[in-house]
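Budget justification aside, the reviewers requested a transparent look at the raw inputs and outputs of the sequence design task funded under Objective 1. We therefore reproduce one unedited record. The lines immediately below are the structure tokens for a 115-residue chain.
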């Protein structure tokens, strides 16, 4: 089992920044990719960004140039730096970890961007 705990969400004005963190614990060996997803009210959960153990990244088009994902393997932590936030970025952000073809999810952290 892998446990994921997110932190760093909150309320910010449009144009502001937030940094999300996700710490993994438990059976963390063999975790390959980690990433962030989000779900807005009434919408499906969608990919935001992923990072492999080797540091390769992938971003959704709607966050390219604004968000940066990074990973500290020594701390078993993944980060999401979010800049130039927009009201449409408002959602619950979930951390995910891929281990041996199973995906584990965190409990989510709310990000609210006011206009």
């Amino acid at each position: 089992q892998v446990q994921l705990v997110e932190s760093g969400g909150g309320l910010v004005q449009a144009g502001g920044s937030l940094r999300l963190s996700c710490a993994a614990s438990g059976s963390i060996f063999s975790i390959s990719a980690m990433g962030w997803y989000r779900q807005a009210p009434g919408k499906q959960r969608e990919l935001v960004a992923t990072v492999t153990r080797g540091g390769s990244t992938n971003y959704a088009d709607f966050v390219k140039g604004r968000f940066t994902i990074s990973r500290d393997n020594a701390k078993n932590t993944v980060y999401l730096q979010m800049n130039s936030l927009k009201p449409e970025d408002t959602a619950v952000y979930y951390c995910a970890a891929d281990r041996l073809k199973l995906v584990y999810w965190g409990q989510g952290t709310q990000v609210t961007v006011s206009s």
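The two ends are 40 Å apart (CA to CA). The chain is about 0% helix and 60% strand. Computational costs for records of this kind are itemized in the attached budget.
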